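> call design_seq(struct)
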C-alpha cells in the first residue's frame, strides 16, 4: 500500500500579505526578555525576515499578539492566529525558529524542520504559503531546498488500513507556495524540481517501511522495487531462491530458508549518458522484511517494529529512482538483498557454517545477526561487479542506538569515505558519526572452525555496532573505498511527529545517498 504525493509545491514572489491562500506561515525567533521590563512578554519574540508585510498589516502588534497566545519562538512550535481581514489569508501560522542566528539566515535544517512542522499543523487547509527567511544571494539554494523538502515531507501521511472514516482526520495540505525574491529564477526552479524528486523518494521509502509485513515479503518487495525501477528506466536484475543457491549466495539463502516466502536479490543499474565521469558507485541496502530473530528469537516487546528492518533496502531502492530522475554523471548500481528471518524446521541454526558469495566461511552463533549475512553476499557481489565507491546502509545493530541515539547514524569503513558521508549527512539533515573498526574487535570474532564468527566468539556484546562493521569489512575488496551506515535508530521513528518526521518510517538515509552520488558526479 502506497501513499501518492498529496502536496504540490511551487514558487511565488507576490507580497505574502496579498496571497489568496488559506494560511500564511511566518517565522519567529526567541530572544531573552529585557532587563527591568514590566511585562513578562517584552522582548520574547522577534519576527524573522519574510514576515515584514504581515507585521505591517498588524500595525506592529503581531509579536505582542502571538506572545499573548503563548508563542515563545521555540524550534518547531506553531501558533495560529486569525487575521480578521488584516491580510488576504484568514490565518497566520507562526513557526518557531529558535534564537536569531548572528549575521546569517537560520540553518537549513532549522528551516526544514520548521516547514515540516507548519505544514503538518495546517493539515486540512487546501493552500498554504510559506514566508520563511531565505537569503537573497547565491547561498539561498540550500535554504530553499530545505524549506521545500520540509514542506513536502511534513505533509506525508501513510495511507493506512483503517476501514471506517475518521471524522477528526484532516487531509494533508494539497498545495504549498514558497515565497522567494524571484519566482522565475532558473536556479530556484531547479531546486523545487529536485526537492520534489527527492521528497518523492523519501515518501516511497516511508511507504515501504510502513507497509504491514504480511503485505511486503521478499518476493512482493522485490516485485515492487523492480516495477518502479523499470518504469524509471533503470536496469533490473532479480535473483530468486534458485538463482541465489546456484550463484553461491550462502548468506542470503541461509537467512531466507526459514520462511515460506523465499529470498531475493535485486540489482538496479543506472548508466549515465555518454558514460559519465568514469567513476562507479555501488549502493547496498539491507532488506529483511521481518526479523523475528530466527532460532535466536527476539523478545515479543516491540517486535512489531521489525517490519522496518528493510529500511536500508527501501532507502537504496528509492534513492535509485531519484538518481534516475536527476541524471548525475556517474554510474550507479544498487544491490538489495531481501529475506524474511523466521523460526521454523528449515531455519539456519547457531553452529551452522555458511559459505558466502566470496568463498569465506562464517560460523553462525546468533541467527538474530542475520543482516550482516545477507549484506556480506551483496557487498561481495558489488565488489565482484566492479566499483570505486561502495555505500551500504542497514538497520544493523541495537548498539548503534545505544551509542548514538535515534537521530545520528554510525558510519564505519574507509576513513576518507566516512568523512564524506558525515559531510553529506550534515548538509541534508541526516547526521552520521564516524566510528572505529578496532583490531581487538576483529580478534574477538575469530572462529575455531571457520574464517570468522558472525558475532563475538564469546558472545560479548561490547562494541556490538563495531562488530557489525568489522564483519562487513571482510567482504569488501582492498581496491574499493567503502562506508557502512548503521541506521537502526534514525530509520524508524516510534514517537510523536516532530519536524518533518512523521511516526513510522523516516526515509533516512535517502537524501544522504543522493547527495553522495551527486558529490561523486561533481568531484569524483
Amino acid at each position: 500500500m502506497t501513499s501518492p504525493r498529496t502536496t504540490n509545491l511551487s514558487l511565488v514572489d507576490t507580497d505574502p500579505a496579498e496571497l489568496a491562500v488559506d494560511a500564511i506561515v511566518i517565522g519567529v525567533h526567541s530572544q531573552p526578555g529585557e532587563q527591568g521590563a514590566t511585562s513578562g512578554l517584552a522582548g520574547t519574540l522577534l519576527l524573522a525576515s519574510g514576515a515584514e508585510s504581515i507585521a505591517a498589516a498588524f500595525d506592529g502588534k503581531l509579536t505582542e499578539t502571538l506572545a499573548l497566545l503563548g508563542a515563545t519562538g521555540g524550534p518547531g512550535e506553531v501558533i495560529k492566529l486569525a487575521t480578521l481581514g488584516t491580510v488576504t489569508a484568514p490565518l497566520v501560522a507562526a513557526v518557531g525558529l529558535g534564537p536569531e542566528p548572528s549575521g546569517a539566515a537560520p540553518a537549513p535544517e532549522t528551516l526544514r524542520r520548521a516547514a515540516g512542522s507548519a505544514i503538518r499543523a495546517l493539515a486540512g487547509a487546501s493552500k498554504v504559503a510559506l514566508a520563511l527567511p531565505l537569503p537573497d544571494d547565491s547561498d539561498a539554494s540550500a535554504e530553499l531546498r530545505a524549506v521545500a523538502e520540509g514542506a513536502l515531507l511534513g505533509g506525508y501521511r501513510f495511507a493506512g488500513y483503517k476501514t471506517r472514516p475518521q471524522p477528526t482526520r484532516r487531509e494533508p495540505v494539497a498545495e504549498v507556495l514558497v515565497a522567494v525574491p524571484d519566482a522565475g529564477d532558473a536556479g530556484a526552479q531547479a531546486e523545487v524540481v529536485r526537492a520534489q524528486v527527492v521528497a518523492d523518494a523519501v515518501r516511497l521509502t516511508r511507504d515501504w517501511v510502513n507497509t504491514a509485513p504480511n503485505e511486503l515479503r521478499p518476493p512482493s518487495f522485490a516485485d515492487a522495487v523492480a516495477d518502479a525501477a523499470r518504469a524509471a528506466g533503470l536496469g533490473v536484475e532479480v535473483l530468486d531462491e534458485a538463482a541465489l543457491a546456484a550463484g553461491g549466495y550462502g548468506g542470503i539463502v541461509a537467512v531466507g530458508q526459514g520462511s515460506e516466502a523465499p529470498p531475493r536479490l535485486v540489482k538496479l543499474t543506472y548508466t549515465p549518458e555518454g558514460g559519465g565521469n568514469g567513476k562507479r558507485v555501488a549502493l547496498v541496502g539491507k532488506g529483511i522484511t521481518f526479523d523475528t530473530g530466527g532460532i535466536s528469537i527476539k523478545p515479543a516487546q516491540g517486535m512489531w517494529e521489525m517490519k522496518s528492518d528493510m529500511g536500508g533496502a527501501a532507502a537504496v531502492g528509492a534513492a535509485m529512482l531519484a538518481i534516475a530522475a536527476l541524471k548525475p554523471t556517474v554510474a550507479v548500481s544498487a544491490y538489495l538483498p531481501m529475506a524474511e528471518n523466521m523460526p521454523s524446521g528449515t531455519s539456519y541454526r547457531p553452529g551452522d557454517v555458511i559459505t558466502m558469495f566470496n568463498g569465506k566461511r562464517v560460523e553462525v552463533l546468533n541467527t538474530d545477526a542475520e543482516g550482516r549475512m545477507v549484506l556480506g553476499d551483496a557487498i561481495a557481489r558489488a565488489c565482484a561487479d566492479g566499483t570505486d565507491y561502495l555505500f551500504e546502509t542497514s538497520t544493523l545493530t541495537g548498539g548503534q542506538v545505544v551509542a548514538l541515539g535515534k537521530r545520528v547514524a554510525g558510519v564505519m569503513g574507509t576513513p576518507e569515505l566516512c568523512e564524506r558521508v558525515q559531510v553529506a549527512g550534515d548538509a541534508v539533515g541526516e547526521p552520521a558519526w564516524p566510528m572505529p573498526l578496532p583490531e581487538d574487535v576483529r580478534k574477538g570474532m575469530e572462529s575455531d572452525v571457520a574464517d570468522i564468527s558472525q558475532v563475538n566468539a564469546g558472545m560479548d556484546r561490547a562494541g556490538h555496532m563495531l562488530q557489525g562493521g568489522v564483519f562487513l569489512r571482510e567482504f569488501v575488496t582492498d581496491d574499493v573505498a567503502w562506508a557502512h551506515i548503521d541506521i537502526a535508530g534514525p530509520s524508524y521513528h516510534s514517537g510523536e511527529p516532530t519536524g518533518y518526521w512523521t511516526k513510522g518510517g523516516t526515509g533516512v538515509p535517502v537524501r544522504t545517498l543522493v547527495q553522495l552520488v551527486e558529490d561523486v558526479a561533481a568531484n569524483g
